[in-house]
Task: inverse folding
């Protein structure tokens, strides 16, 4: 199965798409620091999903890639929390992102434990 056909890939794509839109309207003082880091980390998530999907027959390797995904994902959530606390993103935007982060976290954890 192609990674792009996985539900977690589609949800991650939606999350990254939202993040790119939100970062585009960040204040200039945060766009090239926090915004750039959010963009880079969120794009790295796709790499881990691709690697984990390719390692479908190798459970230890797949678990390693999914663990890498979860580490980057936790960093992304910390950055989003910082944006919320600094009022770079609104409460409504934070809530919308939280629905995706919760859903993606459950899917990747389930996949890793499988």
Result:
């Amino acid at each position: 199965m192609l990674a792009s056909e996985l539900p977690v890939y589609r949800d991650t794509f939606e999350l990254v798409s939202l993040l790119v839109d939100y970062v585009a309207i960040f204040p200039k003082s945060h766009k090239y620091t926090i915004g750039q880091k959010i963009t880079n980390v969120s794009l790295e998530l796709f790499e881990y999903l691709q690697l984990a999907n390719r390692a479908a027959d190798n459970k230890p390797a797949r678990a390693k890639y999914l663990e890498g995904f979860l580490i980057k994902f936790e960093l992304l959530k910390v950055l989003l929390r910082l944006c919320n606390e600094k009022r770079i993103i609104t409460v409504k935007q934070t809530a919308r992102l939280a629905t995706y982060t919760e859903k993606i976290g459950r899917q990747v954890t389930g996949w890793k434990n499988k």
Notes: The chain has one domain: 3-113. The mean pLDDT is 95. The helical segments are 7-24, 28-54, 59-85, 91-113.
